[in-house]
Specification:
The complex is a heterodimer. Chain A is mainly α. Chain A has helices at about 10-30, 40-60, 60-65, 70-90, 115-140; strands at about 100-105, 110-115. In chain B, strand 2 (about 65) and strand 3 (about 70) form a beta hairpin. Chain B is elongated, with a radius of gyration of 35 Å. The chains are: A mainly alpha, B mainly alpha. Chains A and B meet through helix 2, helix 4 and helix 5 of A and helix 27, helix 30 and helix 31 of B.
């Protein structure tokens, strides 16, 4: 908030913590999504709720400073992730969007499957964040919310 | 050798793509580098002429197909070779010519990029062995020629000419597509060689008329035949290298090529013969007649092109082996002299700054080489020996005389057109080049010594080619007899001669030349008279009529758009719901007895009942609430209720998504709520009743559909497949996620694209209003 007299330091700190927690939690959800509830879409929304609450309290400028790049670029990066995941199989002469997998065994974690669907899911994650943030920041700036 | 042809056509396209990369490296030398591509193809085709002999057709099937049956298979035969040689040969010269002509233009890289694409499309067109491939190249030529004609897009005139040519040739292209589909349906293949080999008698097919008319429209529009001829004079708004290329070997000749290519399949009917002869004869005479009344050098040439195209269409309509031979020779003749003349016109334009023949004079002094080349081309155009034009014109006369029943009308008009050609050639020569005229000498910006040699190379090479081929026309025998073998499907011996001895044809020629000279001597009254007729024709000024029709069409389209896109959200919703409801009501099974599930109802769970009741109460509250905020909150309750429902039935991912989406929507609503106007009852009672009825009907409809969908289990549900294969094939235990990112990844890709579009829409809407306010 612009008006310094009305600053609520506790709320501001809580929101900052909340944002960090949500981002970490969303990444956790993204990574475990393939086997447990979660996934790119949900993770994207969770991360952006963290950002939205942060923006409501601290203002969009502060949010822009934290995420560094414009939210629209999240969409672009996300879509390129998705496209990479989609067209990687073409290189190994498979059809578009075929899942490619690497199976490794790591001593502590056990068997690990890494594949293009994870890249795809990350792309979805970024697109969702980008879309929600673009819309919310546009609305907040136009309505002079902060 | 010809195996490399597809590769080289690909190279031509590639060079078009690479122009933006090459331009910063080569700058003004770009044309030199690019000209290597057509030159290579020219040499390749020239070498493979030896392979194909007089009766061989080389098919080059392709491994790559866009869709089954639609691929880029190529062929090499006499017909393709003739067109291909002219396209790449003149293309090579035009690129060199343009590299100096376009020197002062800003967007050189754009120009060369378009030009290379155009060349590639044209080359692909004449070598394609697949009807659909041919169509794709055909449309590519339309699009690239649009870009080339409208290259000076800061000029209103250029834009209009470009749009006109695109609309007309694009319309023809659509007709070609339909014709190609019909032919493909009948023959069962799109491969031209297979269609011809199949021996199906298309002329006896009930759909022959339709196919032919569609094809005819495609040809008439592309080849600028009456009544679609008017786009071609407009198209000379393009930079001169483009005009030279468009008129001589490409674009307008694509229609001629198509007629020749389709000749074995579709020719031989009365319809084919008479419609082509009619269109050709009108165009031939009209073009020649109009060209005499013009002042602009390029416009004169444009109308003579129309006349020449008419002659070719007419000859194809006649359809005897001799007339086909005449068509091919005339095509070569025309390509050589027209390319040369346009380049000469460009040189004159550059060195004097005008193309008006009433102002130009005595160019022999300052531009001697150009004059020689221009005069050689003019001799060829007039059909005088020893140029190839003479050979071509003699053949044309023979073919016209041959036609029983119709020669009494075609021959006079043909001779008339030729008289005009002789007169125009003489006029242009005397007005522009001749030294002993009374006109004042025109100031020269560039004398020939200041022009680079490769700028004058083009007309020189073409004029010398016309001269050499005129002196030794036998060099063309082999390739033309191969082309005739392809078009007529039987062997034809070709013996081209410059001198046939004294016969009736020669008498006709002498007569035409004599009258041409007479017209030239009395050119002032004649041009006055022709200008009068042109003025009279201008009442039906086709370009203006065409533009008026187009504007009217746009107006009507605009009105309809306003009617449909009225901007009232509630009416959009009403339309959407009513249409959806109507369609489902029409389709749905109204027998409610099978709505009861087979296994009977499951036991009622008390927690779900409570949930539903809460949701229902929230809906009622939202409907009757007098405050917007509470209505929104009530809708939020409904949303969370649905989320809980998912949770209770074990769909955790859906539940989480629902909760989150609901939360975000709530936050957004609360954000904008203060900025909305106060809640007020604006609608009257009538519309409220209407809304209630629609809402209830939609609700009932959706309920019925959902109940039906439970009863409909015709196939084994696909969810079983997902459940079984989720871990085995996709290594994921969370089926929902596996479906999203693996089994149905394409759907997800579509969805996030839609999301992106929505975000872009919101962003641009908001930013647009902000900018307006700040002003």
């Amino acid at each position: 908030m612009n008006n310094n007299n009305l600053r609520n330091i506790i709320l501001e700190n809580i929101v900052t913590l909340f944002r960090k927690f949500m981002v970490i939690y969303s990444i956790y959800l993204l990574l475990r999504g393939h086997n447990n509830p979660g996934g790119g879409f949900i993770a994207g929304i969770i991360a952006s709720t963290g950002f939205i609450f942060f923006a409501i309290i601290h203002g969009t400028k502060a949010l822009q400073n934290i995420i560094k790049i414009q939210p629209q670029k999240f969409i672009a990066i996300g879509l390129s992730f998705v496209l990479i995941a989609a067209f990687l199989p073409v290189i190994s002469s498979k059809e578009v969007l075929t899942g490619l997998w690497i199976h490794t065994k790591i001593p502590v974690l056990g068997e690990l499957h890494l594949g293009t669907p994870l890249i795809f899911d990350t792309g979805v994650f970024l697109v969702v964040i980008g879309v929600i943030l673009t819309i919310v920041i546009s609305i907040m700036e136009v309505l002079k919310w902060n | 050798m010809s195996e490399y042809l597809p590769l080289l056509i690909g190279l031509l396209f590639l060079s078009g793509i690479l122009v933006p990369v090459l331009y910063p490296i080569f700058k003004q030398r770009l044309g030199w580098v690019l000209s290597l591509a057509p030159l290579t193809i020219f040499i390749l085709v020239l070498i493979s002429l030896g392979d194909i002999g007089t009766q061989t057709i080389k098919l080059l099937p392709s491994d790559f197909s866009l869709l089954p049956g639609i691929d880029f298979a190529f062929r090499m035969d006499g017909l393709s070779a003739i067109f291909g040689l002219l396209i790449t040969g003149i293309g090579f010269l035009v690129v060199l010519y343009a590299s100096w002509y376009m020197k002062k233009y800003n967007r050189q890289a754009h120009f060369f990029s378009y030009l290379m694409f155009f060349m590639a499309a044209m080359t692909g067109l004449v070598f394609s062995d697949n009807l659909m491939g041919l169509f794709i190249f055909w449309e590519l030529t339309s699009v690239t020629s649009f870009l080339l004609i409208g290259f000076d897009h800061h000029l209103e005139k250029s834009r209009q000419a470009a749009l006109q040519s695109l609309l007309i040739t694009g319309f023809g292209g659509l007709c070609l597509l339909f014709a190609a589909i019909l032919i493909g349906q009948i023959a069962g293949t799109y491969q031209i060689s297979e269609i011809i080999a199949s021996g199906i008698d298309f002329t006896a097919h009930p759909q022959y008329q339709l196919i032919f008319i569609l094809l005819l429209v495609a040809v008439l529009t592309k080849s600028a035949q009456f009544p679609f001829h008017f786009w071609l004079p407009g198209a000379m708004q393009a930079p001169t290298p483009v005009s030279a290329y468009l008129h001589s070997a490409t674009m307008v000749n694509a229609g001629i090529y198509l007629l020749l290519r389709m000749h074995p399949v579709l020719s031989g009917t009365i319809l084919w013969k008479y419609s082509l002869i009619l269109a050709g004869v009108i165009t031939m005479f009209l073009g020649a007649w109009f060209s005499m009344g013009q002042k602009d050098l390029k416009r004169i040439l444009a109308f003579t092109t129309i006349s020449a195209l008419g002659t070719m269409v007419l000859l194809i309509g006649v359809g005897t082996p001799l007339s086909m031979e005449a068509t091919l020779v005339f095509f070569i003749v025309h390509g050589l002299y027209k390319g040369g003349l346009f380049m000469v016109a460009g040189i004159i334009d550059k060195s004097t700054g005008t193309r008006d023949i009433t102002v130009l004079s005595k160019l022999w002094k300052s531009l001697p080489a150009t004059t020689i080349f221009g005069v050689l081309a003019l001799i060829s155009m007039a059909g005088l020996p020893p140029m190839l034009g003479f050979v071509g014109k003699e053949l044309v006369y023979v073919a016209k005389i041959q036609l029983p029943g119709l020669s009494w009308i075609i021959l006079p008009l043909g001779v008339g057109a030729n008289i005009m050609m002789v007169a125009i050639s003489l006029t242009v020569f005397v007005e522009v080049f001749y030294t002993r005229s009374k006109k004042t000498t025109i100031p020269i910006h560039y004398t020939e010594k200041k022009l680079p040699w490769y700028f004058i190379l083009g007309p020189g090479v073409l004029a010398l080619a016309g001269l050499l081929l005129g002196l030794f026309p036998a060099g063309l025998n082999q390739v033309i007899s191969n082309a005739l073998f392809v078009t007529k499907n039987h062997v034809v011996d070709v013996h081209l001669l410059l001198w046939h001895g004294f016969n009736e044809v020669l008498l006709l020629s002498i007569f035409a030349i004599f009258l041409g000279v007479m017209v030239f001597i009395y050119r002032k009254p004649v041009t006055q008279f022709i200008k009068k007729t042109i003025k009279w024709f201008d009442i039906y000024h086709l370009p203006t009529i065409f533009m008026n029709v187009m504007n009217q069409y746009l107006k009507i389209a605009g009105k309809n758009t306003q009617r449909i896109q009225h901007g009232y959200h509630r009416y959009y919703l009403i339309t959407f719901f009513m249409v959806t409801l109507g369609i489902t009501a029409f389709q749905i099974n109204w027998n409610f007895s099978d709505l009861v599930p087979f296994g009977g109802f499951t036991t009622i769970r008390i927690n779900i009942v409570i949930l539903l009741m809460v949701s229902a109460l929230a809906v009622l509250f939202a409907v009757f609430s007098m405050s917007r905020l509470s209505a929104i909150l009530a809708m939020g309750v409904v949303g969370y209720g649905i989320g809980l429902l998912y949770l209770l039935y074990g769909a955790i991912d859906l539940a989480i998504t629902q909760f989150l989406a609901e939360t975000v929507i709530m936050v957004l609503f609360v954000m904008v709520i203060y900025y909305l106007p106060k809640f007020a009852k604006l609608s009257n009672k009538k519309s409220r009743v209407r809304d209630i009825i629609i809402s209830l009907a939609v609700g009932a409809g959706v309920t019925i559909v959902v109940l039906h969908s439970r009863a409909l289990n015709n196939h084994e549900p696909i969810s079983n497949f997902f459940a079984e294969n989720s871990f085995i094939k996709a290594h994921g235990k969370n089926i929902v996620n596996v479906i999203l990112v693996d089994f149905r990844a394409l759907d997800t890709l579509g969805e996030i694209t839609v999301l992106t579009l929505a975000a872009i829409g919101v962003y641009s809407l908001f930013r647009f209003t902000v900018k307006k306010e700040n002003k």
